[in-house]
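Sharing in case it's useful to others searching the archive later.

Someone asked me privately for the predicted structure of Response regulator, so I'm posting the question and my answer publicly. Question first, with the sequence:
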Amino acid sequence: MLRVIIADDHPIVRIGQRVVIEANGKCKVVGEAEGPDDLLRLLEITSCDVLVTDFAMPGGQQADGYGLLSLLHRQYPELPVILVTMFANVATLRASFAHGARAIVAKSASAKELPLAIRAVSAGQTFVSECLRVQLVEAGTGDQSQQPQLSGKEREVVRMLASGMTVSQIAARVNRSISTISKQKSTAMSRLCISTDVDLFAYARSCGMVP
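And my answer, the predicted structure tokens:
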């Protein structure tokens, strides 16, 4: 029987996940956590075969989803991690795989797809919810585990924007026109399938471009 730990800051979500996970009689929830620090303490004392966790849980030292994923991957490299999330941003999905996630399940589809994801990762495979997989395909990602590739200048512009500089300031710094910088920003966002500055800055932080 597969031992599963679940982590989510909403008790009602954990109750629902436990019911779904244990319904087929092949899995047993051996622990629950309500936040990142709680999860890390639980993993130290409880062995499991699969971890099902929310992407971003508030509070604690590891509230950032990417930071938690990276830490889990370093400390428990053989533990399959399934993200159950409301995030539907393609760049977030790509980066999550790059940071060690083995499966991503949309919360809207968790009841029917969570058991499929557990079965997949326990067999050494990856899994993406159907609704999210459609977005990845439409975005032309190919292998979803690969992060999108930016040119050197695009990456430079994204890094400067995320560090707090404006398009005009970047243009003056690198001696390029404002229109050129704006176009490189737009092209980078298109490659990343990002539509807002907030998501762009989040991507830059997740990839280590800025602290």
